[in-house]
Amino acid sequence: MLTLQVIGRELQGEVVLLTLAHSEGIDLPVFSAGAHIDLHLTADLVRPYSLCGDPKNRQHYQLGILKDSKSQGGSLAAHALNVGDRIQVSDPRNLFALNGEASHSLLIGGGIGITPMLAMAAELHAAGRSFGLHYCARTRDRAAFIPQLEQSPYADRVQMHFSDAQRLNLAAVLSDVPANTHVYTCGPTRLMEAITEQATRHGYRPEQVHQECFSAEVQTGGAAFEVFAATSGITVQVLENQSIVEALALAGLKVCVSCKQGICGSCLTDVLEGEPDHRDSYLTDEEKADGDQILLCCSRAKSARLVIDL
User: Which UniProt key words apply to this protein (predicted)?
Assistant: First the structure.
């Protein structure tokens, strides 16, 4: 865990750009493009945000955070931060890394989903690798990072698409690329589903399409079941409209959670017995089929009892 200080705050439309650094100027832990950090906004409010700065710069981290009207408190608390405030953050974690063998990387960011793409573009440009970046937003005047993109050393590889002007033509973008192109996308669910569908039509293999969700529709209801936390020796009943995390908390066992939507993986736990009912967007289909891990924030059980390593 790091304690960092807000040294910069800039509002771009509905997005706040926060710059965090160590108060003594100490170099920060290395990160690679696609990584995120968890912001510990309060004792019980932890949220993951993508790092959008240049990975080569170890003096500070940068985050772009949208003020979300449907926020459960995370984005509102982040927007309330001011220069001089101190905040605890996790070390960087990367669940959305670039593939080093790709002949070309196609970066597609929708709305606030542009944030990890900024770090990816900086890393690819510094390495002299082939890439293109497409930024989709509703309108130019509400979009963040436009000056940064237009003034970047890779500006000639950037194309912007606005809903009120020229929309993204996915079929054209996905077909006009070299062999072994890898696609990276982050943004609204509809955009990512459309990209996956079009990529499949154009013959992309599943391993060539990489996605990072920043929100997900999760159905957490279902029949009640029992959970035994083997290490702690605690047994709980998880009710129909209750998560495993909530049931364990009532029994005095607190689980570290961040996104609460099965996206970030912070509550990933090994399953020792029983059959999970996976509701997350974090595990791959193969990992879900193995049945030996579970995201406690949203997933449930198909069996009457689960034994977890907690």
Answer: 2Fe-2S, Flavoprotein, Iron, Iron-sulfur, Metal-binding, Oxidoreductase
Domain range 104-212, its CATH number among 3.40.50.2300, 3.40.630.30, 3.40.50.80, 3.40.50.11740: 3.40.50.80
| CATH class in words for 2-94 | mainly beta
Domain range summary for the chain, segments of one domain joined by +: 2-94, 104-212, 225-308
Average pLDDT across each block of 10 residues of the chain; the chain has 310 residues. List them in order.
Answer: 96 95 96 94 87 96 88 85 96 93 97 96 98 94 93 97 87 92 93 93 94 72 94 96 93 84 84 95 86 94 96
Domain 225-308 has CATH 3.10.20.30: yes
